[in-house]
């Protein structure tokens, strides 16, 4: 069973969450999906990272599920993922014939209770997921040449804002440093903020690690930008772990410790430890309703295990996953373990920050 280093670390008792699913009896699993078609709802437009991940799974999973069902991916777009998510939540049968691929930020929106989103993650089970890291960089116009001097940065420290929930891991990191930055709203996506950063219109920018390596690292090489930190990952004991795609880059908590001589603490640190696993571990997550028939759940689990060990899938997924490895089986328990670890105080802090600073409304 292939595992990433940080998945091994994070696996602590999280297997308890999915243990019942993994141990489901296999009786009739061979027959349940025979001759069936599984619909894969992707609540985002074609071509993005979540869509690419969902289509990767839909192309390979079916032939490994007992009964060899056909899996058809369908983009149900609109309202930032709400239309497809709400359809999956409320208007499909709980028979295992409909799956949904969500992004980490959609998971976070559901977890926080974004207004209008009726997706209840507690009622779902993750089938398979993939991580994705993020890196924050700063323009050299800020006048510093070492990340440890971050609090001495000069000028207007502007950061472009798209959907604030979609940037929450980077915003929480900046709040953790108590950095006096100015949020500039109105950008359509991270790519737009990267272009503005390249033009010198923004001083701080966060991209997925692959996007950073492809599009921001050249700016670093030219001397017009400097990496500050990788958001990093959080292990099962709440400790920071390096991003395996940039293992030599310091993480945000490590940088905080360099600057202040101690690790972060308090509500903002607890918020970071909740937000980061939900976003970073789930670049893409395939969900199924938790109350589908036992034989359907058993067949899905069996299919995922066979898929991830299939050399053809491994080859096909290598470029799409961009250095990260599939999460499946017991490792998936950390997704819900992260949610279970969130106190009401942390949830109130995150909702209040998003509402007061950006006008985001919650149910």
From TrEMBL:
UniProt keywords, alphabetically: Signal
Statement: the UniProt record of this protein carries the keyword Iron-sulfur: no
Gene3D superfamilies, sorted: Bordetella uptake gene, domain 1, Periplasmic binding protein-like II
Top-level taxonomic group: Bacteria
Keyword Signal: yes
InterPro entries: BUG, Bug_dom1
Signal peptide residues on this chain, from the entry's feature table: 1-29
PANTHER family tied to this protein: BLR1237 PROTEIN, TRICARBOXYLATE-BINDING PROTEIN
Family to which this protein belongs: Belongs to the UPF0065 (bug) family.
UniProt name for this protein: Uncharacterized protein
């Amino acid at each position: 069973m292939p595992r990433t280093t940080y998945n091994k670390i994070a696996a602590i008792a999280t297997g308890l969450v999915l243990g019942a699913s993994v141990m489901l009896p296999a009786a009739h699993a061979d027959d349940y999906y025979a001759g069936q078609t599984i619909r894969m709802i992707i609540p985002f437009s074609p071509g993005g990272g979540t869509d690419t991940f969902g289509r990767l799974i839909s192309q390979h999973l079916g032939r490994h599920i007992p009964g060899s069902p056909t899996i058809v991916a369908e983009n149900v777009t609109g309202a930032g993922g709400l239309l497809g998510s709400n359809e999956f939540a409320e208007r499909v049968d709980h028979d295992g014939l409909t799956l949904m691929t969500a992004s980490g930020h959609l998971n976070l929106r559901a977890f926080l209770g974004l207004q209008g989103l009726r997706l209840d993650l507690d009622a779902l089970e993750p089938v398979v997921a993939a991580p994705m890291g993020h890196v924050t960089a700063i323009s050299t116009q800020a006048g510093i040449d070492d990340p440890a001097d971050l609090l001495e940065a000069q000028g207007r420290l502007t950061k472009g804002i798209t959907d604030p929930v979609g940037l929450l891991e980077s915003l929480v990191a900046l709040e953790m440093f108590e950095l006096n930055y100015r949020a500039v709203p109105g950008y359509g996506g991270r790519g737009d903020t990267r272009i503005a950063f390249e033009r010198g219109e923004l001083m701080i920018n966060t991209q997925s690690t692959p996007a950073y390596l492809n599009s921001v690292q050249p700016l670093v090489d030219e001397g017009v930008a400097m990496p500050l930190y990788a958001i990093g990952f959080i292990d099962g004991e709440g400790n920071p772990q390096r991003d395996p795609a940039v293992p030599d880059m310091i993480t945000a908590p490590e940088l905080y410790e360099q600057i202040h001589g101690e690790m972060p603490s308090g509500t903002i640190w607890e918020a970071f430890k909740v937000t980061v696993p939900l976003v970073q571990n789930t670049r893409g997550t395939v969900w199924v309703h938790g109350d589908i028939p036992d034989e359907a759940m058993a067949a899905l689990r069996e299919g995922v295990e066979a898929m991830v060990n299939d050399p053809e899938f491994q080859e096909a997924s290598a470029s799409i996953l961009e250095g990260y490895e599939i999460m499946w089986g017991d490792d998936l328990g950390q997704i819900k373990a992260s949610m279970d670890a969130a106190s009401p105080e942390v949830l109130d802090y995150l909702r209040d920050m998003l509402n007061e600073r950006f006008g985001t409304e919650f149910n």
